[in-house]
TrEMBL record:
KW Secreted (keyword) present: no
GO molecular function, one term: kinase activity
Superkingdom of this protein's organism: Bacteria
Database matches in InterPro entries: DUF1348, NTF2-like_dom_sf
Record bears the keyword Kinase: yes
A UniProt-annotated Pfam family: DUF1348
Keywords: Kinase, Transferase
Protein name according to UniProt: Histidine kinase
Amino acid sequence: MTEAPALRPPLPPFTEESARAKVQAAEDAWNSRDPERVALAYTENSFWRNRDRFLSGRDEIREFLAEKWERELDYRLRKELWAYTGNRISVRFVYEWHDASGQWWRSHGNEQWEFEDDGLMRRREASINDVPITPGDRRLT
């Protein structure tokens, strides 16, 4: 396991520019589909709500992401800054993926993020809905 850096810029309090940079960094990391890389953005004791699952800590987050990207194949994500203040950022996102049977899905969601002073995320709450799509309906390639 790789240790998280001492600081994970951009750091709170966020400006519009730094909040957009934080969102873009998250999008880039998630599109890597590398659970280790993504997990390093969270505190060791980070709390997550993802749909109906509740996770606690970087190790659970890493395991969850590994399982996610085993199921959600050819995953492609776009995130958009919705709002920010102090040490919090709100994001809306869409991602597309297909399951093992070849069924494509578009997943729409909203996330609320809360950060420590060092720029690591201590809380992530995500609400997500999935819509079946055809390969011809894909927008994210």
